[in-house]
Amino acid sequence: MTMNQPDARQELVKALVATGREDRAAFRELYALTSAKLFGICLRICRERQAAEDVLQEVYAIIWRRAGAYEPGQTSPFAWLATIARNRAIDYHRALGRRPTAPLDNVAEPVAPNRLALENMLLDEEERKLHGCMDRLSETQRDAIRTAFFEGITYAGLADVLGVPTSTIKSRIRRGLERLKECLDDDI
């Protein structure tokens, strides 16, 4: 089922407000509606799948506790959620620099490589491929796609920031995504 943007936003607002009333079914729906995009934000910042998964789990714990503070009409529901994900991922990333490291003498026995190592290597290759294809886009297309998909800004919000019509933003993103798909399909 495809929904237009106002219907999707309304559904998200409804799920978020109900989550604020500790409605577990609404929380499950909120997760289903947003987890892929919020994971993308976490992965972009953390740069490691396992770290992004851990951060995403923390993000949803925060959302569960803070959903009652969300005020419809003040901000876009996805922007509110994306800000939580972004901030938590940045906190995680910053904390990496403060973690003490042990001397090599104190390091435990090395862990044997496993299937996850191969999966991570493949994910890294896919990420490099995606970044290479993104670099081939025009700057306006690349910036519009990154802002809309990674920062969760709506087309209308992006149009306001850039001072251009919403239709222009939609066209840039649509054409950029078409070029991105072609590039990714060419590299397969």
UniProtKB/TrEMBL annotation:
Residues 35-98, 133-182 form the RNA polymerase sigma-70 region domain. It comes from the Bacteria. Keywords: DNA-binding, Sigma factor, Transcription, Transcription regulation. Gene3D superfamilies: 1.10.1740.10, Winged helix-like DNA-binding domain superfamily/Winged helix DNA-binding domain. Belongs to the sigma-70 factor family. ECF subfamily. NCBIfam families: sigma70-ECF. This is RNA polymerase sigma factor. It comes from Sphingomonas yabuuchiae.
